[in-house]
């Protein structure tokens, strides 16, 4: 099947899904059940992927991402059931009223249509993403990394059968079997069929999609996040937040990469914060002032460090002369994901939230909360760092569009 | 100044505009006043454009679009004042609450940042678009057609001075002086500076931007709109609606291009509708059945007619066997702008609104109402026919984004 044929089939499926109502939840529950019932099939397919990846010399961290276990499959099924339990966004009236000429106007939520997801070698993404798309009434074209192809095939095959068992078109969920670069490029140009393309993965993947796609893209997951420790900060609180934001899960996009510390508190705060991080084996890369205070346990930072998402136990540290300096640094280097100020100053808290131009701006809390579940929005397909359509955690509601319904009695203009 | 330099200046201006509050309305009122006070300057610049265009053999209809008159300038000023009078969307709380861990979360409306507008030889667009962008706290890069360059220069110069007089950066509004194709292409690739690009103009311009832009685009104005006359329609009402939707302003995007008529009502309805349109000098292009009923006053329609936005006094006419046929035709040929069913059937009215996938779906009213003002949304920058970010009339609110503000007391995850 060519991608265009897949796009056509998806468009037809999407027209059915748009009217499917509670059948979508039946399909989601059937998906959860079949993933659990056919664990062995999924594990066998995954074993083949793992064997090939090991043979090809894949790094242990990536092998771990690729691995399915009975627990992880249970987790996938649980995630799908949670999506099924959420409220159906489709048909919700967003706004409306009656115009002076008697026209009744409602803006209602409708599906986007066909969503493309390009992801890397994480087989759980297939189920997570398909569930969210389906809930919002969208058909989905999944294209995973070649390393996970057997796992994805098994998973999508099971999901398609489950969708069909609920009386919905199995082409609601399709897997692009060709994992070559050419197929990714073709997908990025599938105008007329793909309403939006969402890349899920590392910076390279996202950059390549943003640079090359002709279909609309939602950019997710680039997170060069900052904590700014203000002059008036509670130092123990700052240390707690920085520790949590850096070390609780360093590989995720809401982890921080740089801390900025006001000069007037640096001599007191840095030793506390530094000791905490060094104990957790975080490599510190600091500016000259940081190194004066903390000494040789800090690697000298270069310009590149301010611009790097380590996604690892490394943290850049910079002492700033003022809040303005901190704001300027963030404006220059942030990817617009999540930033935090630790402060006791009402004025600085307000100003930081007003001026920092990121999807989530915190006062006195860890950036790790930038997450659909933590924000009370339900499961998410990613954290949008762009400003159009969706910004921040993208849940089911961000996978919808709207249309205007107008009821008249012969009005003309 | 290079486009990159303009982009940098715009970004800096945008940071100021994001915090500008009521100063934005002062700037807008100053713009309205200066356009009125310097009418002579605008008319002189426009006269130069008109002379050059006439010499180059521009068609009368396009010359008329290019022309400024005292009345049109007054209209521009009035439009800008209306935008100033609207509610400021920035800072509005969209949703929010307190999480179980005590985090207070608010999603608030913020500007998008820097908006690019590429438009054709209509000098009023510069003021209209700049006013809407400014109201929503965005800086704007305007790039008009080369035929209107003198008019746009004069207008933007006046607007920049007015913005400065209100204490805001004059680079909030900038005109791209280079009107070559190369500058348009450069603008489409200005990632990092342009947050969104909105083409305003004909199908060719929009298509070129959608195909080539690497910055996010909002597609506006493609309108292949339909009226479907159902079996149970009130024929007089159908004739009124079709007449209005075709002839009241044929060149705009919410005018209709094709009517579909149920076979069971065609023999009665077509003569009434046809007579009405022929009297208004509308050329009818019909299917075989239409020509059987109306005879040789109807030009035979070809496949291309179903796909054409005439933007002129031409209407394609097709007799369909059923509502399903009508829905299929619309799904195949519509650009997703506005469609209408004329019917007395409750069931068909509901089904049509549910199944037609367009920005505005009408029962028993003219498609000409698809307009920001008519919908009660205020002045609009265009009608979005895409599904991401904005769909339908795009007013000030659709020129905004949002961010999450989170207040904590040391929460970690």
UniProtKB/TrEMBL annotation, chains A, B:
Pathway: Amino-acid biosynthesis; L-proline biosynthesis; L-glutamate 5-semialdehyde from L-glutamate: step 2/2. Keywords: Amino-acid biosynthesis, Cytoplasm, NADP, Oxidoreductase, Proline biosynthesis. Its EC number is 1.2.1.41. One of its GO terms (biological process) is L-proline biosynthetic process. GO terms for cellular component: cytoplasm. Its main location: cytoplasm. It catalyses: L-glutamate 5-semialdehyde + phosphate + NADP(+) = L-glutamyl 5-phosphate + NADPH + H(+). One of its GO terms (molecular function) is glutamate-5-semialdehyde dehydrogenase activity. It is found in: Cytoplasm. InterPro entries: Ald_DH/histidinol_DH, Ald_DH_C, Ald_DH_N, Aldehyde_DH_dom, G-glutamylP_reductase_CS, Glu-5-SA_DH, GPR_dom. It holds the Pfam family Aldedh. Catalyzes the NADPH-dependent reduction of L-glutamate 5-phosphate into L-glutamate 5-semialdehyde and phosphate. The product spontaneously undergoes cyclization to form 1-pyrroline-5-carboxylate. This is Gamma-glutamyl phosphate reductase. It comes from Caproicibacterium argilliputei. The gene is proA.
